[in-house]
Specification:
Number of helices: 2
Structural class: mainly alpha
Strand order of the largest sheet: 1-2
Order of helices and strands: HEEH
Helix content: 55-70%
Number of domains: 3
Largest sheet: 2 strands, antiparallel
Number of strands: 2
Strand content: under 5%
């Protein structure tokens, strides 16, 4: 916009601004229609929260919070199925870690054995070189 007359510098910029304002108004009207029809409004927090940006204060008894407040004793820490999934995933992760540790131990054993088999010929050759130098 021009500083002097607050008019758009270019017609294209004016069109973009008008399209943005129209889309914003459409979405605000759509959201308000959902709320007026008794649909869900998205609010986060526990007892003292409930502010929806651009919407003012929404009564918490009408729209329950999206997430529970850790300080609020009346709410659970999450849906039971979600806690079960976390428990199952933790078990699976523990099993995978144990299996990985077994694989690592097996590889270390194989490597140790190969090192031993290679050390013997090296020691023999080293002894032969020492004997040859002495001779």
């Amino acid at each position: 916009m021009r500083k002097e007359d607050r008019d758009w510098v270019d017609k294209r910029l004016s069109d973009v601004s008008d399209a943005y304002a129209a889309e914003l108004k459409r979405r605000q009207d759509e959201r308000q229609a959902i709320i007026d029809a008794g649909g869900p409004a998205w609010a986060a927090g526990g007892r003292k929260r409930g502010r929806i940006y651009g919407m003012g204060v929404v009564p918490s008894h009408k729209y329950p919070p999206l997430f529970s407040d850790p300080d609020d004793d009346d709410t659970a820490s999450g849906p039971p199925d979600l806690r079960e999934q976390v428990t199952l995933l933790n078990r699976e992760l523990t099993q995978q870690a144990k299996a990985h540790a077994h694989r690592v131990a097996a590889v270390e054993a194989v490597c140790t054995e190969k090192v031993r088999t290679l050390e013997s010929p090296v020691q023999t050759q080293s002894q032969e070189v020492s004997d040859l130098r002495r001779a």
